Each structure stands twice: as structure tokens, then as C-alpha cells.
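Bug: C-alpha cell stream looks shifted between consecutive jobs. Job 1:
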Amino acid sequence: MAHSFVSARTKSGSGNSFIDARMPQQPKNGSKKPEVRVRGRRVGSAARMRFMRGWTVACKRYGWSSSVGKIRRTESGIEARVSFVHRNADLELGKTLDDVRGIFGVPSMSYALDPKHSSRATLSLIERDLLLEREGALWPGIDASSLSLWDPIDFGIDQLGQPIRLSVVGHHALFAGETGAGKTAAQNMVIATAALDPTTRLFVLDANEMLWGWEAVAERYVIDDMKAAAEMLDFVLSEHERRNKVRRRHGLDKWSRELADETGEGPIVLAIDEAPEYLRNKACQDVLRRIAARARISAIHTNITMQSPNATIIDTTLRNNFGLRAVFRVADSSASKVALGTSAVDASTIEREHRGVCYLHRDGLVPTRMRTFYPTPEQVRELCSRALAPRPAP
């Protein structure tokens, strides 16, 4: 892959020279089109020139040496691959992202890390906000007669208009946000997938009665009876312990799809609305913490919602057991940091009218700004009715 090099200094000469891209390079062939040489390859793209100008300013400001790889125009703006010299890309971009966004003069900016190289990242300059153009996009699973929780769930689109799909088996999920922000709609997509999977068992704790439509589908459903809630959690934990014995007999590290097919025991979903109501109860909290820490390997998926994350209710240890975290608009930056585990992005800046827009944290990745699909209440009721078709006994 071709690279052009930018750093805090300008150097001329042959070979891999450092290029000061703040000002357009004057072409040597007499043409009027500006060009940048990328290791012998001429590039006259306006998008490349725009990125190189801004990126060189950022490198000079922060003393970075870096290489720039592929730069391309996307539907929403410009995307470029960068590699830092002797620096961690996440550490450098995480603390400077908003300032770098200001240098480029774009409404939004994000980055994705290279999982194999800590010094590399892909930067996205968002010039056109596709998320605001696609409000209330229909969930692709809305017309399905059956689904499998083992398969990735269609969850929404990112700022580049690319689909986001979540694999929930082996992960727990947290959905946080103010009333009306979209967290329950997001949770409903996971529950609906479980309900339409005839091998999946569903357990629901519904403090605010936002999930009442799933009562007839769930194996157990509890509202505000804390004794019954604790008993449900104890039962789910006991299922994990029972499956552990079966898994070990098969010599497996986790409850796999193949083992599920062999035993006839598919995933278990524990869905909890307004989790702080149960976390304030010591008996419920103790068991829920054990489920969150241990039960993933048994294909037991827990998803929870909360309006106002705070460190008293969800500490770092508990939060980190929820590797999937979708944070919609929250009251303040403190709540955003508690839920996401970073201050690089701030979910409190999401506009109130932008329902479904959130920051999605996935294990080891920088939070991605995205918009979830939105099954309407009427569609959820239809999904509930469809899920009531005969299901095999667990």
C-alpha cells in the first residue's frame, strides 16, 4: 500500500520524503490541478489534498510523526488510514479527537483502530450526517417468521451508512439513555430475535413495565417483586452452573452452537428493564454480578437498560462485563463516561430529537456513533404475537 509521510518537520529530497501538506503542492508539469506525491504515485484528488492539509496541521500541533495510507471519498465524507510512529493511535486520538475535528472543520469525526497494530487507525471525517437522514429505519428482522440468536443481529447503521450487526451470544449488552432516546427499541430487537428463535429461552425483569408485551413469550416474567426477581436470577445462575458441567464433559471452553444442536439447549436471554431497581436490592445485585461475570461462556446473554448511569450503581467491574454498550442521549457527560468508559465521546451532546442515535462501544473498539433501527410499538406487538407460535419445551 502506498503511503505519504507527514510530521512536524518538512524535508525535501528523493525517497520517502516528509511532505508539508498545509498548502497545496504546485505541480511541476505546468497543469493547474494540485497534486501530492505518494511514494512516486501522483494523486490530484481534492479529498486527498483536503485531508493532507488538515492532518499535517494536526501533526505539527501535537508533534506527531505518522504515515498516511489510503484516502478515499465516502458517502458521508473522507476516510483515511494513518499510522503513528512509535505512538499508540488510541491514546493519541482519544485525547485530541475534538481538537483534530476542529482543525478539519467538520461536524463530526471518528476513528477505528487496527486490531493487529496499535499504532494504526482509520480516520473518518463526517461532512454529511447520514444518521439524521435515516430516522426510523425499519428493522430488517421485522417480517421474519423465525430467527437465530447465534447469528448477528441487524442493529443499525454507522456514520458512513454501513450496516452494524451485533453478535450477542458470548456478550452482555447495556442500553442507556433518557426516556424516549431509543434504548427500549434497541433492547426489543434483541428480545424479538430471542423470541423468534425456537431454541432460545427468555427471562424478563420489567421494573417499568416497558417489556410487558413479552410476558406471554417469556419463561418467567417479573415486575417489582424483588423476592421473585432474586429467585429468577438464582435459577438463571443455576442453569449456567449446570451447563458448565455438561460443557466440561465435552471438553469445551464454552457452550457452542454445535453443543447446543447436540443437546437441544440453545441460548438463554435475561432481559432487564431499568436495572438499577434490581441492583439496589442486595440479593439481586449479588446474583446479577455473578451472572454478568461468569455466564457468557454458557451462551447466557444478559441485556439491561438504565436511564442515568452512575458509578454508585454500575461500577467499573460490572460495566466492563457488558462488552456491548449502546449509550443514547444521557443527562450529562458524567453519565456518558460511566456507561461508555471513556470521555473521548460524550453521549450527552446527542440532540434530544435525534431518537435512536447513540454511541456504540464494542469490546476493544472506540465507541462508534450510529443510529439503531426502530421497531415501532405496533411492530413489537406484531412480533410478540408471531413469537407465540408453538415453541419446543426447553
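Job 2, same session, no restart:
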Amino acid sequence: MNLRAFVFFGLLVTVAVIFTLFPQVDQSVSAEFYRSGGGFFLYENPVIRAIHDAVPIFAVGTGIALLMIFARAGWTRRTVAGLSWRAAAYLLAVLIIAPGLLVNSVLKDHWGRARPSQTVEFGGKKVFTPALVISDQCDRNCSFVCGHAAMAFIALGWRRQKDAADALVACALRNPLDVTEGLQIVDSLREMFAGEDRNLGLEALIAQHSSTVIRVAANRALTDGSFKRSNPTSPC
């Protein structure tokens, strides 16, 4: 587990522990947005409503766009909008599995936690339940977890890949005589999202690798993305 993953996991556990041991924190935050007799005052704010209503449209549009990119890139074997067919397939899977199936179909419809507006504390008739406790206060489209916020999960697919690119280049340079391994690494770099990290990795191979075959393959991948192999999985 790298440092970034360790920090992320640590923060996740910390937040989970806080909201489990001190559930009143949840209610206190909700109370800041509630006015007696008027409900949650931001609910009818036009800007908030516009953002809220736009997220499902964004989700569908993103899914259609990724499907089109996947088909086009797979047919031409070239990147489309900076994405290879594998990258588009990955992002499409993230969209379907995380916000689509896990959040909206599994957790929100089966966790049973009432929304704040449904609880007694905020004018409703349901009993408040801490976030990590399964309840029977809601039948479907419940409060745990937030479906709109889950859409941000797809942004993980667009993270910078400098560490991965650097590791692949280092692997290729450590084993300059293994041309097969070097070609696999070039293909792995080519399949990354188009951007500075991928390009710098390919440029490093062009400038530093001792094999002419690897340098030519890296140059082709950098200039037109035409290099391809049947097995792109990197050995490193």
C-alpha cells in the first residue's frame, strides 16, 4: 500500500469512527442548515437546485460519452479525447459500479437510514440513525450514502499518473536487454490517459533507452498512438 492510499484509508477510518462514536456531530451540522418553520433553507436556492438537478444529467451524459469513446478508440486503436479504449472502459466501469450499482442500487435502497428532513429533530416522523448503522426508517433512496457526492468518485480515474509512469520507465531502464518487457512497458504508457506524465515517460525512453526498437516504439506511441500489442500488461 503506497503512502497516498494509506493516508486515504486512514482518513476514511477516522471519519467513520468519529461519526460512530459521536453521532450528534451529524445532527449538529444538519441543524446549521435548518430553520424552524422553514425547513432546510437551501433546498429552494436556485443555484443549489440547479447543481442538484444537473448531476443526474451529467452522469448519463458522461456514460454516453465514455461509451462512444470506448467504441471509437477500440475501432481505430487510437486515443479519443485523450483516452484509449481501455481507459474509457475503466472510467465507464467506475461510473457504473460505484455511483450506479454500489451507491444507488445497493446502499441507498437497502441501508434504511432516514434523511435528515425525515427525522423528528427536523420536522419529520422518523428516528435518527447514525450513518454506519443499518436501520428500517426508510424504504428506498435513503440517506446513506449520498448519491450526488458519489459521482465525484469517477474523478479518481483522472488522477495524475506520475508515480506509475516513473515506475514503468525505471523498470524498462533497469532491464535494457529485455526488448519484450520494454515493448510491454511502452504499450502500458501509451494506454495511460494522454497528458504530461505519459508523454514525459515516453520521452524518457526515447532519450535514454539503449534499444533502437524501444526508442522507435516509444516515439510512435508518443506521436500517433499507433503502437499496439496483444498483451499490454506490464511485467513491473
